[in-house]
Amino acid sequence: MDIRYHSSRNNDVSFSASEAILKGLADDGGLFVPDKIPALEKSPEELKTLDYKGVAYEVMKLFLTDFTEEELKGCIERAYDSKFDTEAIAPLVNAGGAYYLELFHGPTIAFKDMALSILPHLMGVSAKKNGLKEEIVILTATSGDTGKAALAGFADVPGTRIAVFYPKGGVSVVQEKQMVTQRGKNVKVIGIKGNFDDAQTGVKKMFGDEASKARLKEAGFVFSSANSINIGRLVPQVVYYVYAYTRLLAEEKIKAGDKINICVPTGNFGNILAAYYAKLMGLPVGKLICASNTNKVLYDFFKTGVYDRLHTLDEESGEFKGERKFTLTSSPSMDILISSNLERLIYRICGGDDKEDKKLMEALSGEGRYEISGEARERLSDFYGAYADEARCADKIKSMYEEHSYVIDPHTAVAAAVYDAYRSETGDETPAVIASTASPYKFLRSVITAIEPELDEKDDLKLIDRLKNISGVEIPPAIQDILTAPVLHDNVCEISGMEGEVLDFLGIK
């Protein structure tokens, strides 16, 4: 079955998978969506005998239909190798009444490695397949984790350059240190005086500026994206949910055909969208539990069918009337008010109506809000949305440590707290997989403060040994590296200066 990709805002023009990967974002600002969701060709029973690479091939070949078997297997082989500290790649840990899918065993100890270890290889093959002569410029906005994973993936990859923008003061100390110490002749890291939404909007603006793109092309460059808006990021994420189900089967925790629930800490919506795609492929999934932090724009959307980035939901009246404030939390990768990947879900629940999707996205851009129809809202029944504030997040980190000797990061704690609320509210005891999206070492102070609030240590990096003693987990190489690595990137710019930073990086006057 040949899968083609088109913009969520225009069904009329389609592209191959490799073309969509290279473009990253559609010319009209929409996101590439497949013209159909393929069904799994092998049953979970058959897949349970395969390792991670084997499952990856069986899933990804269904979406990337213009890749040959040799090309795709080569990408998978190069991606999921000794960069990961476990042969399982994404192990499952049973703790506290749920199965934690540990997605942080890659080189930057966050779930973004699962897709960004393979994206450079997919992009390289795509460039050759399409005879691309220009140098690819990866333009990325990050709320903390995507930036480092993309930098690590693309550093010194021939034919590419990568520029990463992050909110200065809006990421953890470790996240920032990982980025600003990144080596590579083709990389640039820039802090912006704003939040992640500002960075993401600035990047999208550059993608949509035809004059700017023409200027770049004349200079021998072409933009692409490593954000989760790129279909080459989303497809590899589908893999680990299928893999998790097959591990539960192999370990006889469930029987073939049994449903599982999946709970995901969510900011930009790509990670839980991948789980939704896995369900659409035929994976036996019951409820998709969307966990938000204090920036609960997605919770408000699932509760009301209204997406409003300017006003917050008043629980008593059910109306949007208070100003929605952007809050910096202990789970910074979820500090997002514009969830870009939600557009792919909106397109789907609107029945593939590109004109309706475009109208809603224009309303969000212009008025700061949109409301889906009653029929579309009924199609959200696969999802359950809830949020956990800072106190509940800290309490969950502490209780998981004290009661189960298992240390989790703040993002995973948000998901775990929301899962508790879901189970309490519904009584649903279906086996659940919780996406554990980052190593606790990446958020040292938040984790240590939750477990030992009386500890008084001003230097975050001095908390590393304490966390090792608490968790019993060896210090990851990614953390050891930043202790002595020099700062190589110290640029900070205004939002209005983002394009100038890119042009300067490329040597375009």
What can be said about this structure in brief?
The protein has 509 residues and is of the alpha/beta class. The chain contains 22 helices and 18 strands.
Instruction: Tell me the distance between the termini.
Output: 46 Å
Structural class: alpha/beta
Principal-axes geometry comes out as globular
Radius of gyration: 21 Å
CATH architecture of the domain at 237-473: 3-Layer(aba) Sandwich
Strand content: 15-25%
Instruction: Name the helicity range.
Output: 40-55%
Number of strands: 18
Description:
This protein has a domain at 237-473: Rossmann fold, CATH 3.40.50.1100. It is 43% helix and 17% strand. It has helices at 17-23, 44-47, 52-63, 69-79, 113-116, 119-129, 145-154, 173-180, 196-208, 210-218, 231-250, 270-280, 297-304, 342-349, 354-367, 374-378, 390-404, 410-426, 444-451, 464-471, 477-484, 498-506, and strands at 5-7, 10-15, 32-34, 92-95, 98-102, 135-141, 160-167, 187-192, 221-224, 260-265, 285-292, 306-308, 311-314, 319-323, 369-371, 383-387, 432-436, 491-493. Strands 4-5-17-10-11-16 form a 6-stranded mixed beta sheet, sandwiched between helices. A 5-stranded parallel beta sheet has the order 9-6-7-8-18, sandwiched between helices. A 3-stranded antiparallel beta sheet has the order 2-1-3. Helix 1 crosses helix 6 (119-129). The longest helix is centred in the middle third of the chain and has 20 residues, at 231-250. The chain is globular and about 60 Å long.
